[in-house]
């Protein structure tokens, strides 16, 4: 499921860095831990976009001028999504960089019908390599029209799918068909205009800063529909739970594909409050004496 989380912006003109996925990742991780459900502390099967809104560019970064801004969240786990949204709406004032936000409402995107081949666009940078400490390999440029580019994405995707435990061994063996074919007309056009489709980004993991190369380009993915569904909901490539590799279908009109989403707010007991209620019940507090 893909949820649009809409915030009101309290200080128009405030800015975020051009690439702010690490700020969003730290914010979401804090919310996940704050909620207290340990089974989600290291949950990695989710993905999110950058913050969307009307922006202007300056040397400082992106200045936001719209009254509302949007963050797209994606995960196949509805329980996790509701838990995360619960934490968001328990935080009436949110500071992201220089922005002051307040959560307003949520919308759910209708799930598209995915085929054995789909053309995607990257709505957050696509990272191919997970570096190790004091390792520069994550910054290495890999030409998008090489087999290595597609093979690295294949290996990371199948590894994540296998670790999820959602697929049988027979299914995993059937996912051998996988090919990423970038739109080289788009890439070559950017090169002619001296514009970049691949940049170096910072990412933080276990309090360690890494630098990785991210690619933003359209491509066609040839793979089984289960694989297509997985990358659409969980992201493609490395560091997807830190906001990299979020995809959208090309030529898919965003205004025609949402409905209101009321996750479980009405009558919903926050997790920590539920824990306290259970403790009180177990200790016999509030019971009448016989």
UniProtKB/TrEMBL annotation:
Q: Which residue stretches belong to region Disordered?
A: 270-290
- Name-wise, this protein is CRISPR-associated endoribonuclease Cas6
The entry's family comment says: Belongs to the CRISPR-associated protein Cas6/Cse3/CasE family.
Q: Where does the CRISPR associated protein Cas6 C-terminal domain lie? A: 117-249
This protein's record includes keyword Cell wall biogenesis/degradation: no
What keywords appear on the UniProt entry? Antiviral defense, RNA-binding
* UniProt-listed InterPro entries: Cas_Cas6_C (IPR049435), CRISPR-assoc_prot_Cas6 (IPR010156), CRISPR-assoc_prot_Cas6_N_sf (IPR045747)
């Amino acid at each position: 499921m893909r949820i649009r989380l809409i915030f009101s912006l309290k200080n128009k003109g405030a800015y975020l860095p051009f690439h702010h996925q690490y700020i969003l990742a730290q914010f979401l991780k804090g919310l996940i831990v704050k909620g207290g459900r340990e089974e989600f502390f290291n949950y990695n099967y989710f993905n999110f976009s950058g913050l969307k809104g009307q922006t202007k560019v300056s040397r400082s970064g992106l200045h936001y001028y719209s009254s509302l801004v949007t963050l797209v969240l994606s995960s196949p786990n509805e329980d996790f999504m509701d838990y995360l949204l619960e934490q968001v709406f328990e935080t009436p004032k949110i500071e992201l960089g220089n922005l002051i936000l307040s959560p307003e409402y949520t919308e759910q995107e209708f799930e598209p019908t995915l085929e054995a081949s789909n053309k995607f666009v990257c709505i957050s940078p696509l990272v191919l390599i997970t570096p190790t400490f004091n390792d520069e390999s994550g910054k290495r440029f890999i030409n998008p029209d090489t087999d290595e580019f597609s093979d690295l994405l294949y290996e990371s995707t199948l590894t994540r799918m296998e670790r999820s435990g959602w697929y049988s061994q027979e299914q995993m063996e059937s996912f051998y068909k996988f090919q990423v074919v970038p739109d080289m007309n788009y890439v070559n056009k950017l090169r002619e205009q001296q514009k970049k489709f691949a940049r170096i980004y910072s990412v933080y993991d276990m309090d360690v800063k890494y630098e990785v190369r991210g690619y933003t380009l359209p491509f066609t993915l040839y793979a089984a529909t289960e694989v297509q569904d997985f990358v659409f909901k969980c992201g493609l490539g490395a560091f997807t739970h830190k906001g990299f590799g979020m995809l959208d279908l090309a030529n898919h009109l965003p205004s025609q594909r949402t409905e209101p989403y009321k996750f479980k707010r009405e009558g919903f007991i926050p997790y920590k409050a539920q824990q306290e209620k259970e403790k009180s019940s177990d200790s016999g507090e509030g019971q009448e004496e016989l």
